[in-house]
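Slide 14.
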Amino acid sequence: MAVYFEHSIQAPTTRGDLVHTDVEWHHKYSILAVASKSQRDDANGSVNLFTEGGEMLENCSIHRSVVVGCLQWHPDKKILAVGWASGEISTSNNHCNEIFEQSSIHRSPLAFVQWNCSGTRIVSGDLSGLIAVWVVDPSGQLHPVPLHQHRVQGSLSQCVLHIGTSKTRPGESVLESYSWQSRKTAQDFAACFCSTEDALYYLSNSGECMERIRMRSNIHSLLMSPDMSGIALLTHDMMLTIFSVSGNGQTSHKIKVKLSGKKKATQIIFITHGMLASCSNEEIVRIWDLRENDNCQLNIMNHIQTAPDEVVARIGYNIKRGVLSVGTTGGNVVMWRWTPTSPAGKPLEGLARWQFIAASSVSGSVIQMKWGLNRNLLAVNTSSAVQILIEHTMNSHFCDNVSAVQISPSEMIIENHVTGLVYPFKTELQIKGIFTSKEHTAVWSGSKVVVYAVSQDKPMVRTTGSFTSDTCIVALHEHNVYTAEKNCINVRTHQGTVKQVLPISDKEGNLISMNAFGHCLVIATDNEFVKMWDISKREAKLCCVKMVAESLPEGSKIILAKCNCSGTKIGIIFNQSQGERQELAILDVETHAIKVLDMAVLIREDEEEQQQQQPVPDWFFSLPDEVTEAAFMQQEELAADLVRREPLGLFWDPVDPMLLAVEAQVGSYRSYRENSRAIRSGKHADVGMVIASMYVTPDMHLLLNSITPLDPSFSDLLGISTLFLYFSRKTLFSSPESPSSAATNDTLVMMTGRVPMKEFAGLEQSSDPATLQAVREFSFYSMLGDMDRALKAIKLIKSQSVWESMARMCVKTQRMDIAAVCLGNMGNARAAKAVREAQSIPEPEARLAMLAVQLGMLEEAEKLFSKSKRFDLLNRFYQSSGKWDKALKVAEVKDRLHLKNTYYNYAKHAEGIGEIQAAISSYERSGTHPFEVPRMLFDDPIELESYVMKSKDKAVHKWWAEYVESVGDWDTAVQFYEAAKDYLSLVRILCFNGNVQKAIQVAEESGSRVAAYHLAKKLSMEGDAQDIRKAVHFFTKAQCYSPAIQLAKEYGLENELMGLALLGSPEDMMGAARFFEANVDTQEKAITLYHKAGEVSKALELCFQHKQYSILQQIAEDLTEESSPEMVERVAGYLLEHMQFEKAVDLLLKSKRFMEALDVCMTHNITITSEMADAMTLPKLENESPAYTQKRVEVLERLADCCLAQGSHHLATKKLAQIGNKTKAMKVLLKSGDTDKIVFFATVTRQKDVYIMAANYLQSLDWKKKPDIMKNIINFYTKGRAMDSLAGFYDACAQVEIDEFQDYPKAYGALKESLSTLEKVKAKNPIALEAKISMMKKRIELVGRFVNAKRLYDENPDESMRLCHSLLDEPQLDNSVRIGDVYSVMIQHYAQSDDFNQAYSLMEEMRRRVPSVNLAYYLDIRTIEAIHRALGIPVGRGVGAEVMLQRTLQEEEEEEEESDE
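Slide 15: predicted structure.
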């Protein structure tokens, strides 16, 4: 809790008549500028500067004979700009103590002087309407001539700057973006807005000035939003208009609203997140949320006592801290803090977002309030005085069951928790620190220390000593006072006499924490040293010095250090990661070992796993080895509540050296999603602060004992003392006066509170040390899971409350067996029985919950039921606890199975307590209202009738109809039976009353089968023919055909009988068929009914007997294989006789006579379809008999032969494949010529001969132009292991490359593939194979030589020609290389070399060697003509023929190309 210290400024003593007119804080330094004037003549103005403590700075004052009009600080430097009533502008440079005067162009009092963001410009405006922009040099001196100046209509009053951006930089908050520091790099200003009485003017950075807005009423306030996105104008008639401002200063209308309030606003300010605050001479401050269109009111009377006419005068807002300050006419200052979310991260709304934090008082009426943004400094101007309020945290201390709590800057309350005495008193100091012991309390102010003696038997406090000291840290132990001073700790008497000096070296640094506890004094320094002295003797003895920085994470800084009562362990809280979070460490004094307990580190990195499982800190796995599995799970659950919290304070138990209490809050690094997940799981994350008690074992293991959420009425943990945790309370003062004079002891006791530790619940009044020690041991061993030693520790205890406490502990440790022992010692038979019965519940958490219920641990039981997912038990628990709202919610969401039962039970509960309407509603939701509500209201006929009349429920109407029928009210009964749509009862009453016609009408219109049946029974007993027909009709409507058929047979209603029989059961049909069979004229109906009843044989017999061939074909469709062969043969013969071949085939197929069906198909040319073939295919069974297999194969072979005969190759192939004859199937498929199916069949068959047949078939296709076919041929030959065929195919490929494309390199590659394949052949005749391989090698050699000759031609033509000549000498060249191709290479070479004689000679040689050669096939015709022309030899007839042939070939090629296009 915060308190504000007051410092009045030390105004010049020679000027007692000063009136302070304005105050202004520097944005960076803690310097306050105060403008003053003489009260007597309203002149002689001055400006003085003061520190945050109120001390006036020397040689920094400015005095003039005129008053100050306005003043403002430079954004960065200690330069103050002052505007005077004479129009002059002064700048005071406090860096060099110089004052610069500027004879301004202004001749009227200045209304404002405004620095730009970089401090290089000043905008000034006066009451005559003159506005100017000045250039300022780095020292603060203005240029003699303004950069821009303009005169506007009216008197200027206010000015705001727009810096041209409304966005924050990455990683920068809105609050940071509003500070001067973050705007230094921005441009000077994009726009300056100045207001007169009723207009807003715009001044751009370039000097352009124009009127932007004119209002209908005078302007009261001009504001710029903190994010620079909008301008707010408030007029005197309370009209608020907000304009959005673009980056270049353009404005556009955004919001216009009339503000509410009894009086006109005296002040309005922007605060945060699109909010405005205003005061209007009332007791309230109005807050408008412009973004959410919401508002709320803060009332000062809820927090302070005010004078009768006291109202809010001024308001101020600290944008960095989110603190709203309110000053009143009575001198009170009230403060609220903006808290948009709860400590757990839940968003708050409305008034809940404003948290009251402090109240203070000043002398006089507040006329001005200004916040200093660099520190939490508030300057309050009351005209006659200026007071500076500095925020301090309330001090408190607890030791030896004595607590001291500060309640105001100079007041405190001491409470002795053993005797119950309370000591309120006021000190002579402004308290900055408190330390208490059992008999003494020390307070200090930073300049003085006072020690008080506290009486043990009466509420009296007296001063035992005081002395001057600038110490900020003090500790007490017995009669010694320990004061932290420069480079040492002085051990003093209460009067200040130094008894001993404990040195602190420069290497160790400056002291930042000191605490005396038990018999030890522990300090921590800013160089991360921890030192401990034993102070139990006359002189302190150093017993531990440890530089802990090397054991802590890099960059860590110690905040505080405290030792346990035995001096064996030291707890340390330090800042980690440059102050981002605080963590806890434990130092072992003997071994100097340090264990860091980082609550932010998780052992599970995967986010999905984190959502499903509880994350725990990594130090959790340093548990002792003897911890049991159940204890481990308990520790894991407790540790999960500490994840991503940060410790704020630590407190050791004064008796047990292992017991430590840590105050922890939700860390700033904990995400809102994690908080939400923890809240949903029911953990303590929904509170901002928890108290974690734990055991630190001698071997540095840690065992969590309990996690206690901080009660909302408490503010801080003060300490721990054996049984209790002690807290300071959040106290609101009724008056700023001293509470010691008005408050009673009952009020003062509320300053502190205590909560028993969970393991000591029920022992609050116990003071037996042995009992407490036994309970403490039980708690410790329970944490380990060693329940045997735990029971041994308490076996001698006879106290029932202790055993109950132990049973409660068993709920935490999940030890149902130990709980049974505890319950036995308690003598609680009822609870013991409940625990035994709970053993049948499979979920362990649910069993524990049942135990918790018996022990009155309802909160724990609720959590355990939720954790076990036994929402049915949770529902019952809520019902038994009377928490019907929760029970209904659980039933609605989680336990839908028992929803109606829950509503029924709640209805019973509501009925029992007289809540009739709630009971009615719940009975209706449970579905039991048709009976329960009339039962409940039966004794109140009027209310019951009213309920029935209002109800629209048919069941209720039926109940009422039955009731009025029982009392003889037939008309009302008919009315309500009709409303309930109970047509049976309606027809019953109508028939009873003789109104049969009305009953017939109801039965016809309603369509009710039961009503029709009742009416039919009534009519059938009349005996009249007309009634019999009606009875048959209504039996038919009721779908009761048997009695209708019986009536029709009895009364000879043949027309109705046939229709009814067709609608009835097979038995009904058989009965009617026999009836019709007896009559010769109705044989067709009999046949039809026998057929419909499933008696096909009987129907066919009658057909042939009475020659009813017209329906024979219909009956034949229902014959199956179970039908007699004679009947099937007879019907089939009839169909064949009448040329119904297809129907005959279908009949034979249905009767499974496949061979006969195939005979009919072949004889009468019936095409076998795929469906017919599938019908004739017998299924393949797992364990089929040989006879069945033979029959199946015979049918399929015959079917395949028939399909093949009909040209259905694909179908024949399919059937042959089904019997496994794949070779024959492929042969059949080859006849179809369907390449795709042939390839597919070969691929899926995976049979060698099938592969070879498919490849042979594909070779017959045009594989030269289709690479896919060539690929399949190679693939099939390879898979079929037909290497000789594959080699032949490669040889064919080579020959194609030579003959058609003259591509010898490809041919060479194909021949090599052929040779490689031949070498893999395992032939029966090796000699023939060797000859074939030898021949292939020779061909490859010749082709390779020719390819080499052509390749060498470009590099060495002569060598190429030599190779060609050698090739021509080969005897079997033409089998490998065409002779013409060799000659063409040589002739082309000599023709290109102009050796036409040699070329012609080769041509002639080529003709002789190949007499039938066509030269034009090998040589270009132009080459031939060129050779003849060069030698003067006319082209002969043979050549001419070659020419003609060549031209013909060219023409044919051109025609083919044209056709392709």
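Speaker note: The CA atoms of residues 379 and 662 lie 37 Å apart.
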